[in-house]
Write a structure and sequence with these properties.
The longest helix is centred in the C-terminal third of the chain and has 65 residues, at 137-201. Helices cover 86% and strands 0% of the residues. The chain has helices at 9-45, 48-57, 63-104, 106-113, 118-128, 137-201. The radius of gyration is 30 Å and the shape is elongated. It has six helices and no strands. Helix 1 crosses helix 4. By secondary structure, the protein is an all-alpha fold. It has two domains: 1-135, no CATH class; 137-202.
């Protein structure tokens, strides 16, 4: 058994490359199932045909189209719900297999991805990072760190968009309340003027 300290950076990198190749089938399966689960969730959340069917169902004659649309949507919803549950179970198993594979090659994978963060690095290396072009461990760390930094920046941008969206919703709610207050104030003023005119008549 060779000591880690005796390995050169290039040897470590080649071992990491072999580890990535071994883990890759688990990555493929995991990403495929994640994509399938995402698509099924999108189908389940899509209620456009249901809403159209309900609207058509309450319109004379159009209910002949609307009711079948609702029935088809309900049938598809039940089918997709069942498929989603099965796929989520498969995804849980695939995730565990992927994590087991990563644990098997922990030492080799940490050569290029650093401690505690190798699962994310595996996916990154497979898709974005050509190991053949990297000749030192330092270059490998640098490439992943740059990717990790970009990912964090993207997450901060998403958080900012979410914050702005929430602020805009709160502002809209406040504007609506102000408009309603103005309307109520105007109605009250009209009512008071009517009462005043009636009092003056007496």
């Amino acid at each position: 058994m060779e000591h880690v300290e005796s390995l050169t950076d290039y040897e470590k990198l080649k071992k990491a490359e072999m580890a990535v190749v071994s883990v890759w089938p688990y990555v493929q399966k995991l990403m495929q199932l994640e994509n399938e689960v995402s698509q099924l969730k999108a189908k389940i959340d899509d209620k456009k045909n249901l809403i159209i069917g309900i609207v058509l169902s309450i319109i004379p004659l159009a209910f002949l189209i609307g009711i079948p649309m609702v029935i088809v949507w309900v049938v598809n919803y039940s089918k997709n719900k069942g498929l989603l549950e099965a796929k989520e179970q498969e995804l849980a198993q695939a995730t565990e297999q992927y994590n087991d594979a990563c644990r098997t090659y922990t030492t080799e994978l940490t050569y290029v991805s650093g401690e505690y963060r190798y699962p994310d690095a595996v996916r990154y290396m497979v898709h974005e990072f050509d190991l053949e072009k990297v000749h030192t461990l330092g270059e490998a760390y640098k490439a992943y760190d740059e990717y990790d930094w970009r990912k964090k920046q993207e997450m901060q941008f998403v958080d900012l968009k979410s914050l702005l969206s929430n602020a805009n919703a709160q502002l809209s709610s406040l504007q609506y309340q102000m408009i309603m207050n103005n309307v109520i104030g105007s109605v009250n003023a009209i009512n008071l003027s009517k009462i005043g005119s009636k009092v003056s008549e007496f």
